[in-house]
Amino acid sequence: MQINLSERTLHVKETEVAFLRGRKEHHSIVVSITDDQGKRIGLGECSPIEGVSCDADAYIRMSDAARLINEALESEDYTKHLSSYPALLFALESALYDYQQNPLLYDTPFAHSQVGIPSYADIDAESYDDMLLRSKRMILKGFRHLKLHLREGETASMLSLVRTLRSRFSKDTLTLSIDACGILKMEEAVSMLKELKPYGIHQVEQPIARYQWKEMKQLCLMAEEEKTAPIALDEELIGVNDLTGKTMLLDTIRPQYVVVKPMLHGGITGAIEWASEAMKRNIGVVVAATQEGSIGLRNVAFLAARIFGPRCIEAQGLGTGRVYRDDTEMDIEMHGNKLWRSLVDED
What we know:
This protein is of the alpha/beta class. The protein has helices spanning 62-74, 78-81, 86-100, 103-106, 128-141, 155-168, 186-196, 213-226, 243-253, 267-280, 294-308, and strands spanning 2-11, 25-34, 41-46, 117-118, 121-123, 145-149, 175-179, 203-205, 231-233, 257-260, 284-287, 332-335, 338-341. The strands form three sheets. The chain has a seven-stranded parallel beta sheet.
């Protein structure tokens, strides 16, 4: 077995630059594993997000990633050794599971191309008009769940967009979620949650910045008692890489949902642990990709299929689409609002 690392730069399609908030390139490290004949191959993608990931500065040189992988594989438990480096752990686990065709990920109805995984569409743009246009485009493509991204100072526009969409689509025909990315102050979050109450919002993701456990708990209690939009945690999970920390966070804040992103939240092992602990507490779970390319998206899909199995009814965060014009072709494709694995020869 040989492990190789390569740097890759993908270029964002011009039509998607606003969606990716001005980013024109996507940089990643691809971990590939082959057998001694160079035939069998497993792929994983390491794409930490600058300013967000807890390991964003860990791989300035590719030699740093190679050293960490070598040290991890020489340790007793590579997953524990790399627990502080979720993006690299996700890439290595993905490549190993792919190479081995490990049944943990590769023995599910999705992996056997029998079912698709329902996905929501991420809606992010610079103006109300562009958000509405992108929403319409995704609805026409077949998406029935939209996640609307809130931008700084745009709360009024977001509320207008929600009203417009709800005037045309009931909550039975179109599900709406909002990702606030932690930009609201506590008073703003309370006000927005109350204003959203009549519109049947599925969840509001990370309404205030992380590390405010007391305030976040209050928002979750309000959502429970006053039946406002449920609260989901996302950025709050970043850097909480051990079981004790995870259980403390969940038991303290008691959110209605957690959005688990293996690239940010502990790789495959860490994501499964987050999902398991949340489900024990009747906390809803959504599995989502970040902005990785098709290699990473593929492995997030396999993970979502393992966590939910054929019970995967609610939309997961896999509807990013082909936002990079020179992305790697993989055996996954979106049909309507579902991500499918293309038919494969399993002999």
